[in-house]
Structure prediction request, 353 residues.
Amino acid sequence: MKFAIMAGGQGTRFWPLSRERRPKQFLAIAGTRTMLQETVCRLSPLARPDDVYVVCGRQYVELVRDQLPDLGPEQLVVEPVPRNTAPCIGLAALHLRRMVGDSVMAVLPADHSIGRVEEFHAVLEQAAKLAEQGWMVTFGIEPTFPATGYGYIQRAEQIGEAKGRRSFKVARFAEKPRLEQAAEFLASGEYYWNSGMFVWTVGTIMEQFRQHMPELHEILLEIDADWDNAEKREELFSRAPRVSIDFGVMEKAERVATIPCALAWNDVGNWRAVEDLLCEDERGIAANTRYVQWESRDCLAHSASGKLVALVGVQDLIVVETPDVVLVCRKDKSEDVKQIVEELRRNGPAEYL
Prediction:
């Protein structure tokens, strides 16, 4: 099995720590290793060093090389321009087909946290066997609360079982729901969080591109025909549709399977998600730095420079300090941090992007 790690995201909801020049996958959010390094490390010993490939934009090539010095040049797949996950995965599949032929391919985001690594390995191995049978496999995270920030997968009939882990055909994908609908999903027992992790063979995903995204498939074939022409590759890739793999392929494909799993998974999608990675005190305050509080509770304090954070009479706040920015945000507005980034793009000052 080969592993394609997607490391091209902008991480705007993690501003001001995550910036255009160094987005969150290249940061140590809650530990000593960066999220990209953690993603690669957790594949050992399941993956050999030469089984791992990283997909990123040109502006992040040096960051990847610095953080993964053992990564060979042929293991780095460079996106000429960002075009969402379907074109990203298509380029990675094309590269793998040229390197190793029709192998099993796992697609993993570079910015997720997984606590139960041995279980993760077991699910990967089970998914690889399904992929060899022509299935496109998703990891369905067993939900623990009615989350409105995740997409969902509904299971259909069971198609297999291995060591007590069942696999199911996917009935449908559901977009991020309202709270009432999320509660219904949880109560039904038929829905799982869509983790954004996939396993299939290179041949299977290329065939699905041909069937469901013919425009992208044709672009990939043209790139393949003149692989070493960087200028032509950029021109072709810039014409690829900006479409996610879920919308472009997974929601339309027939042989889609899910393996429900409990991985202590966190997509670390915004600052509020960091609470799950840090220890909280008896007042619900989580921090990566020293803090003092008075009549405060349920807050997150994060300092890039190790400053002492003082909280007085506040609750449900996120406080993030970097050398040039201080962010103060209500927890229920953590998704809207990206709106500050958009405002800076429109009106500046640009040096804070």
